[in-house]
Amino acid sequence: MTASFKQSIRDFYSRHPLLTYKKGEMILRADDAPHGVSYIEKGVVRQYSINGSGESLMLQLYRTGAFFPMTWVINNTSNRYFYEAATDVAIRRAPQGDVKKFLEKHPEVLGDFTARLLLGITGLWSRIEQLVLEDAYAKTILLILYYVQKFGAKDARGVALEVSPTHKEIAAWIGTTRETASLQIEALKRKSLVLTRGRQLIIPSLSALEKELSAARLTRMQRSES
Fold first, then answer.
1. Domains in the chain: ranges and CATH
2. For a tag site, which of 46, 54, 107, 174 has the least CB within 10 Å?
3. Residues 51-85: pLDDT tens digits?
């Protein structure tokens, strides 16, 4: 998104009050009608679903500059998901009708959103493929690499995740139990492929982690052929 896009969006949303949420606070519940279209000025928002057994599946992370829920804006789709503050969050919320008019007057903003949406769909296809074809160990590595791409920052010990998933969140991302997710992280820690500083994850070597992923995939393939 270019600077001009960002400025036009900021100008539009500046007319609406700033709302703040602490980490872990619910912003929008599943099946609740949205109070408006939220624009994230600061922080990260997680989107997830919960089944009848109380198991959750993480779907998306929205960072500063993102809107949600956009499917409700574009085609009036009912909200089926939970939106929760993954960090301390500051948002501004505008009425659905006002956002539609804004997009009509600024087709370049809608075009940019559409381009990013298509990238997101491509990522979703990749994630579905991973959930079906990969084992828990490979899925955990893939998830860490995803977080590196979104939240990685150079650190004296390697790459530190400014937003790190908990074991419970890892389980929700890869569709397994918390215990299984914890076992995968412990295995990576034993190989010094992942370090911890409090609750923060640190990756000493991205290349080593990527090689581990390739090796894990090769091992799985060899087992399936034997």
1. 3-129 (2.60.120.10), 135-225 (1.10.10.10)
2. 54
3. 877 778 888 899 898 889 988 888 888 889 999 99
**Contact (CB, 8 A) for 153 and 159:** yes
Give the integer Cα–Cα distance in Å for 169 and 198.
Answer: 16
The sheet with strand 56-62 has its strands ordered as 26-28, 82-85, 45-50, 56-62
- Is the torsion defined by CA of 210, 216, 220, 221 positive or negative? positive
Residue with tokens 């998901």: 81
C-alpha span between 130 and 106 (Å, rounded): 37
CB distance 167 to 174 below 8 Å: no
How far is 45 from 51, CA to CA, in rounded Å?
20
pTM greater than 0.90 (yes/no): no
Buried b (16+ CB within 10 A) or exposed e, 142-158: bbbbbbbeebbeebeeb
